[in-house]
Amino acid sequence: MTIRTKRSPQARHPTASAAGPDGPATAPITTNQGVPIADNQTSLKAGPQGPLLLEDFILREKLTHFDHERIPERVVHARGSAAHGYFECEADLRALTRAAPFAGAGKRTPVFVRFSTVAGERGSSDTVRDVRGFAVKFYTEEGNWDLVGNNMPVFFIQDAMKFPDLVHAVRPEPHHGMPQASSAHDTFWDFVSLMPESTHMLCWLMSDRAIPRSYRMMQGFGVHTFRLVNAAGEARMCKFHWTPRAGVHSLVWDEAVKLAGADPDFHRRDLWEAIEAGCFPEWELGLQVFSDAEAADWPFDVLDPTKLIPEELCPLRRVGRLVLHRNPDNFFAETEQVAFCTAHVVPGIDFSEDPLLAGRHHSYLDTQLSRLGGPNFHELPVNAPRLPPVNNQRDGIQRQMVPQGRVAYEPNSLAGGCPFQAGGAGFATWPAPLPDARKLREKPARFAEHHAQARLFLASLDPAEQAHVEEAFRFELARVTVPAIRARVVARLRHVDDGMARRLAAALGMDLPQPAEGDAAGAPNYPHSPRLSQTAYPGDGSVATRKVAILVADGVEGRALPGLAKTLAAAGAVPRVVAPRLGSISLAGKRSLVADASADASPPVLFDAVLLPADPVSLGVLAGLAWVRDFVREHHRHGKTLGLLAGEGQDPALLLGRLGIAPAAALAGVALLGPGDGDTFLRLLSRHRHPDREPPPG
Ligand code: HDD
User: Does 200 qualify as catalytic in the annotation?
Assistant: First the structure.
């Protein structure tokens, strides 16, 4: 039973081509000059066996355009997927900010959001271990505001000066171009092992946050401190947080590795299919709002992008929600050509003096000039503000606008002085006081401490998450070939979690190194911050879009399966019958079932849960099939929900034993089901994963 998806009913992009989204164009095919083409199959020749003729402008134009279709990919964040949607304000924030999107409860602002990995090239896999970009373009009536964040609240470095070095270190090594989309190599760990400020972010990179189950199931952070400015010119500092309604969920590393091969587009497909099915991803926007005076009292500097503000110090205030409800009409035109920039702010949003943020203002426009060819890429539909720009900027490559009149300067009298300045209605930089305005290359004192928040993060994780961090460090460092680099990293981790560092040293076959040099500033001791663990975000309990494999083969007892599948589908899950072949499967009692997927083309990592008939007849068939045993064993190993359709009083351990799972294996998330037990299965499925079923670390 295949759950048909429906195309989301949202209006198409105003510039969508004549060809409808799902149907043929009404106009005949033409050249780019609009000339109707009689024959689009055959080149022009001098006689059937004669040479091609240079005058064949139809052939030449078509080949020439094809030859120039590719543009430079992004220098980082090249691999991404995007969607249209809206931000809906839920509170009147005008006391805090005059920014248009927050001008009243119920107000909706169109947005375009692009998610991305950082290190991988455009065609790399989605499920690599990496930070995820979370870039939101708000098309407000006072211009475009770009909140260009990540799915982690801190960053590797404190100053933009080091960004090219960071990227050169993490990208494929320049002598042989390997590895693709991976930090598990010498140059990355060489660089970060010599950058104590990257310690906190490394713990996030080694955590489950770096292998999200879905773009729809990860948080987003503006990272930097910004300022909110109200109409009276009063400013408060703030940080932006996106919290997904579906909860924060991750893959386990073994899944991520296998998915990179089984479906490199896993996250892109997940986002596309969810929106096509009308399961619109949603996040709540929360603000941490604080004064300069409060910030001055904290043991960290809020201008330091390697530090976060624990929510216990400054709770989030929910102010609205982001909903993505329409897929792009064209990947290249929208997702590839969208251009975000931290400097795109609107009245009511202003910057802080975070040195990393300022460097970004320069870099985004600068790189887009070469990637999108000249200064007019703001005229591309996906980048165009809702109200057309009004200014005296003229010409440049690919100019689309056709300015009227002869005045392109100000002041002027020939155009009556237009366009006028907006005065109080325009963007005005908040006059931030600068206590020490001498020109110098120096960092503030509180930037100098690098371990306390890494300790805070690790200590706030639950045991399964902590085990995953340790496993990730072990995996990555085992891929490093220079022992001195491994030793430097372990020496630094002794300041973060000495037990983990000792176990890593043993696992890497090295003597335990002395702890790296300490911190210049006194290291604060933070109380645990439970909101740093993914377990703080279970989600709304929905199973929408979760894929459930129902394993069948000829001869199994399948009487209850259609009913169960209907229960799952009614709850929004996506049941898929997986069998040795496609087509009709002959069940016991002369019944049959149509397979949605064949086992060889649909490996277990593509599914969130598995369900199988486990009565004696069915188990007699299924336990004899290697692909069934592998399927069940993978799901059990990955801690995912497992439903066994068996009669009352059966022993799940015995049933699993028939399928190759050791009798002593944990049974959390394994459900014995009768025909009417769909709700039990759904409840387990909504918990995403059952970590206490995972093998212990190491
Ligand atoms: Fe960046 C792209 C996020 C630090 C320079 N960055 C880029 C994208 C995201 C981020 C989400 C992809 C935008 C898209 O989808 O097109 N970057 C961040 C965050 C950072 C960060 C959250 C730290 C807090 N970035 C950063 C620094 C610099 C850059 C310090 C340079 C000084 N980022 C770039 C860039 C990119 C970019 C090279 C590449 C493509 C682009 O800008 O348009 O300019």
Answer: no
